[in-house]
């Protein structure tokens, strides 16, 4: 598939990118290089290859999904300009 100037201008308009007319040939060529690279990737045999999240095999650390106060609410509230009864106090914004 080859991208012509009209298609490059259409893609730029869809992406809400202003491209000056003299820059359209370069943009079309860049699109064509990207598509060529994708064609190369399509030639790679990935049969039997499992999808992966990282290049190194590792499992994410798991912990129980429990609601806690973090274990040190006093330290957290010590940074607040105003705190009462274990909560942050903020200015009223709704009348």
Automatic annotation (TrEMBL):
SUPFAM superfamilies: Glu-tRNAGln amidotransferase C subunit. It is an enzyme of class 6 (ligase). GO terms for biological process: glutaminyl-tRNAGln biosynthesis via transamidation; regulation of translational fidelity; translation. It comes from the Bacteria. Keywords: ATP-binding, Ligase, Nucleotide-binding, Protein biosynthesis, Transferase. Pfam families: GatC. This is Aspartyl/glutamyl-tRNA(Asn/Gln) amidotransferase subunit C. It comes from Meinhardsimonia xiamenensis.
């Amino acid at each position: 598939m080859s991208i012509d100037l009209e298609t490059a201008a259409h893609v730029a308009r869809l992406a809400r990118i202003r491209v000056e007319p003299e820059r359209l040939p370069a943009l079309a060529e860049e699109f064509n290089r990207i598509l060529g690279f994708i064609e190369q990737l399509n030639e790679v045999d990935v049969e039997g290859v499992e999808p992966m999240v990282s290049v190194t095999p590792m499992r994410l650390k798991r912990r129980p999904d429990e609601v806690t106060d973090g274990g040190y609410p006093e330290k957290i509230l010590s940074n607040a300009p105003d705190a009462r009864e274990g909560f942050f106090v903020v200015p009223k914004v709704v009348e």
